[in-house]
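User: Carboxylase. Structure?
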Amino acid sequence: MGHLLVVESWVGAMSGLLPRAIHEAGHEFTFLTRDLHHYLRATPGAAPHPLLSARNIVTTETNDTTELPAAVERLHEVFAFDGVLSACDYYLPATARIAARLGLPAPAPDAVEAACRKDLTRLRLAEAGVPGPRFALCADRAQARAAAREIGYPVVVKPVDLCAGMLVRVVHDEVELARAQRAITDLTVNARGQRRASVVLIEEYLTGPEVSVETVTRAGHTHVVGVTDKSLGAEPTFVETGHMFPAALDPDRTRAAADTAVRAVEALGLDHVVAHTEIRLTPDGPRTIEVNPRPAGNRITELVRHVTGVDLVVACVDVALGRRPDLAVRETGVRSAAIGLLLPDERDLSADGTGTLAGIDGADAVRAEPGVVELTLAEPGRSVRAATSNNEYLGHVLTASRGAGARESAERMLGRLRPRYAAVSAVTG
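Assistant: Predicted structure:
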């Protein structure tokens, strides 16, 4: 039995999937956080939060990157950790530094830092010849205007250090560019209270379908578990609306996406890591969007598990403990699995793009449909706003199919769910 130190987590799917994987594999964990109430507030009135299944819960200032490794070293003297991991992107570099200090298995801290900073990722991949969009890092508006003119409109504007598609937009002229850049620079701290970089990344706008490649790297070898396709909402944002595994691609495009992802992981120097690499399949070939040095979110790991029997969250635990993960594909009876992500329709909200969820109609009928594996929906009373990132979901439906039609089923079920908003009813009623 191993004892893992888990440094922070997201409050979404991974906050439940990771504790489950740790316990089912016969291990235990200590949870380290700066604010336990951050997690408890996320599930008011619900069952005990899965992170409370920890053997120990320790609060300390996890944002103090100078003192945190020394503080964990003192905990290590008492608890004797066998591995360190995090389920939150904002703490992945700190987790790698902690593991290195304790002499525990982990990717190199500088590799994780490069993967978690979009500008550093771009530089390392370009140096290694891994194809990606043309790009420029800009510290002020003049640089941004010059870069956009050089690359050519439309361009994509990104923060270098945020997650879930936050503040990522396609812009078509200097007015939109200035607005997007101002939104990025005005946000001085992220959701965890960490100071942000004020620079912006200007990138070439790429066309073509987007996929992700799920990989496990250990002892210098990267194993491709599979390729997942992605559905995106309407521009100017890039909000994810669904995924299907495996991606409905021909073998050549699947292989090209996988090869590009492996090259990207290796170019960053990542090892001892489960990674989720996003690729745009352009008319000129695959182009790397980003490399995430952790398992995929939006329950993509569950899609993979339903189809292949490979549990990428368990693999993440194994890698953190220095163990060889079980990546053998098993017959599950499922050929495809898909998730549809429920977003608020801006047309249903009030004039300022907000509302209060009164309920979601159609849930009972969808839950009873064959092939529906999961249906999770937000509770009435939740404050809702128009979706500009992957943080505004009202729930999801996950379907599994013995054929290749899981995506069609998930989208059909999603279309039967009808959110209602109390604020809009009060105004119009």
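The chain has four domains: 3-106, 133-204, 210-321, 336-421. The chain has 14 helices and 19 strands.
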